[in-house]
Amino acid sequence: MIIAIDGPAGSGKSTVAKLVAKKLGFSYIDTGAMYRAVAYKVIKENIPLERLPEILENLDLKLLDTNEGVKVILDGEDITDKIRTEQIGKKASQIAKIPEVRKKLVQLQRKLGLKAKNAVLEGRDIGTVVFPDAQLKIFLTASAKERARRRYNQLREKGLKISYDEILKAVIERDKTDMERKESPLKPAEDAVIIDTTNKTIDEVVQMIINIAKERKLT
Ligand code: DC
Q1: 147 lines ligand 1 (CB under 6 A)
Q2: Span 17-38, average pLDDT
Q3: Are 30 and 70 in contact, with CB atoms under 8 Å apart?
C-alpha cells in the first residue's frame, strides 16, 4: 500500500510523513532528499548541467533505514545533514525542472516504493505522477507566511542568523519554481485530501491522516 503526501516547502510534510509511517509500520521515503542529493553533487563537484545525464546514469544514491532514521548516502558518503540547507533546497528546485532528472528519480522512487510494499512517500508529485494509483493521497498546505515562520524558527534553533523576510522571499520563490514548471508541477491530485496545516499541530494532522486511512480500511 502506498500513501502519498505532497505539498509545498514548509507545509510540514516531512515531519508528518515520518510520524504516519512510524505509526502504521510503513517505510518512509523522502523523495525531496533525492533531488537534494543530486543538487549537492552538482554544487560540490561543480558539474555543468549538460553533464547531468551522464551523472544520473551512474548515480550511486541510497536511502538507508537505520535506528537513527533514514540516512541519505551518495557515493558512499553520508550526506543526510549536509543537504538540509537553503542553498541546496534552491538548487534542488532548479534541477527538478529538468525532465531527465525527474525521469531517473521517479524510476528510483517507484522501485523503492514497490520494494517496500507498504510505504509513505513524501514529495511534490507522488499522487500525480510517481504513484497515481496510491491508495491514499494527502496534499498538505499552509500559508506562505506560516511556512516561512516555521522555517525561520528551525533555522534559528540551529543557530543560523537569517532574517524572516529573506526566508519568506525564498519560500515564495520556491513555490513559484515548483508550481510553474512544465514537468510534473506541484499541484494536488484530483483525488487528494487537502489539509491546511496553518492552525493545526503536527499531532492533529498525523491523527487526521491515520483516521482517513482507518475509515478507508487501509490499516
Ligand atoms: O521537499 P524538499 O524541500 O526537500 O524538496 C526539495 C526540492 O526538490 C523541491 O523544491 C522541489 C524538488 N522536488 C520535486 O520536484 N519533486 C519531489 N517529488 C520532491 C522534491
Answers
A1: no
A2: 97
A3: yes
For residues 43 and 95, the answer to whether their CB atoms sit within 8 Å is no
Task: Decide: pTM greater than 0.90.
Answer: yes
pLDDT in tens, 31-77: 999 999 999 999 999 999 889 989 999 999 999 988 888 999 999 99
Task: Specify the ligand 1 atom closest to the Cα of 89.
Answer: 6
Query: In angstroms, what is the span from residue 30 Cα to ligand 1's centroid?
Result: 9
Ligand 1: residue whose CA is nearest its atom 6:
32
CA of 7 to the centre of ligand 1 (A): 9
**How far is ligand 1, taken at its centre, from the CA of residue 217, in Å?**
30
Dihedral of alpha carbons 82, 147, 206, 1, sign: negative
Looking at the domain that runs over 2-215, which CATH code has it been given?
3.40.50.300
Ligand 1 within 6 A of CB of 125 = yes
For position 86, what pLDDT does the model report?
A: 86
In degrees and rounded to multiples of 5, residue 161 shows phi and psi of -100, 110
* β-pair partners for 6: 123, 139
CB 32 within 8 A of CB 44: no
Q: Is the CB of 35 under 6 A from ligand 1?
A: yes
Grid coordinates standing for 145?
Answer: 507566511
Q: Is 109 in the pocket of ligand 1 (CB under 6 A)?
A: no
